[in-house]
Design brief:
10 strands; globular; TIM Barrel
Amino acid sequence: MAPMQFGFALQGRGPLSKPEILFKLAQKGDALRYDSVFVTDHVVIPVEIESAYPYSANGRVAGDWKEGYLEPLPLMAHLAALTKRIRIGTSVLIIPYRNPVVTAKMLATMDVLSGGRIILGAGVGWMEEEFQALNAPSFKERGRVTDEFIRLMRELWTREPVDFKVWTGGHTEPALRRAGQVADGWHPIGLRPPGLLEPKEYAQKVALVRDWARKAGRDPKAITMSYRVPLELRPRGAKPADGDRTLFRGTVAEVVEDIRIYQRLGVTHFVWDLTATDLKGALALLERFAREVRPKVQRLPR
């Protein structure tokens, strides 16, 4: 039976988004035998943003957006050159932003040069102002365009010596349909209101993804179920929290049980958002999870 897989996401902005920090975290993850590391995607941030952010309760984006995002595709290529075994992915690449033929070629090239270590996490995007700034296809048509571009890229890849996975994000009904019909994996972000994806909701959406796969004549069990959430390990010796506790934020024993709950729902690949606010804390969190938590949940439950 294949082991559980664990990865982590790199920040696109904020104190941990500087190039030298991204490189150190990726290399540390590689040395600790994490399975994956993911980068994020924005091309241009408009001065004024009216679009609703889907991962906050009030629809507004928190934090300072004045810091520039690194372009994910060349960043992935550089990370691949700095590492040996860890897989490099996007969480997620906004598919309508880029020419699909050029994007497919760049991804195929990276996959060949990295020794088959690329994961394309694909999304439709949420910021209408960014679509307008890039002169991208119509924001209202972004779902249809994403489906069309993914199918085109897959057709192009049949002519290239590549074999990498395409995961699609999101938790709406169209996103679940897309995951079931065209993706190799479902890659949602959880525990960010309003899309919390707590166990009951996650299980319901897994069932919908698999139902769409059956309707498309695909094997539902062949679709990877992943889950991207914040991770925090409380200090050693800390007592379990009283009352309600946010999942994946707790003692080692609590986080182990959280992982097992989602394992039973079909998750085989977790991607952590590291809650540490500095490089020292992020490296320590990677080390502690690998040493104290991963060995306890390495195997899938029977």
